[in-house]
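Subject: for your reference before the review

Hello V.,

The reviewers asked for a structural picture of the protein, and I figured it would be easier to keep everything in one thread rather than splitting it across files. Below is the amino acid sequence we used in the manuscript, unchanged from the supplementary table.
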Amino acid sequence: MTLHFNILTLFPGMFPGMLGHSLAGKALERGDWSYGTTNIRDFATGIHKSVDDTPYGGGAGMVMRADIIEKAFLSISKPGKRIFLSPRGKPLKQQLIKEFSLENNITLLCGRYEGVDQRVLDAYEFEEVSIGDYVLSGGEPAALILMDACIRLLPGVMGNEDTADNESFGANTGGLLEYPHYTRPSSWRAANGTTYDVPEVLKGGNHAEIEKWRKEQSLEITSALRPDLLPS
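And here is what came back from the structure prediction:
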């Protein structure tokens, strides 16, 4: 199965961006996923190809027009799941990413300016999704993040199929944050003069003790940094 992303944007040159490199780039070359960009401005009329207008009710900024976005959207033959990247959307969490990664086609609408006319979101049932409680200049960076999170869950992309379950929010970590990682050298002296050693339990070869230590670390880190993730 190939996951295909349709991207509605005013800046198609921003894609695939970082996704053309590393694991995602190799997966793109293999055909594990694909994408297509639709330039919303191509569907505007007039000399200036304007895609926005002043908001009803007044206020700062401009709003992207529903009629122009509609034309761009209807040019996509298989829109599939429809997502609008928006700071007011539901939080993009790992469980949601897992659901998205099972889709065949996903259409991502990237807004600009003050946003898009609500009517086009209602008419075509776009699901609003947020990558965090902050505002970006446009939806393109958020779309790239969503795509990256989905792509790495596709079969064969990460190589080891168990990797995702052992990461933060994964099944094997109980939805908690991931434990710390260490590699060679076992003793490392930093430039600040402090020596840092790998915990002895990780060097002893007792897998039961290692697993116990990792679970304890995940719980401790989650309690300190993200107590909202702890089981209620």
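For the response letter, the relevant points are probably these. The domain at 3-151 is CATH 3.40.1280.10 (Alpha/beta knot). The mean pLDDT is 94.

Happy to draft the paragraph if you're swamped.

O.
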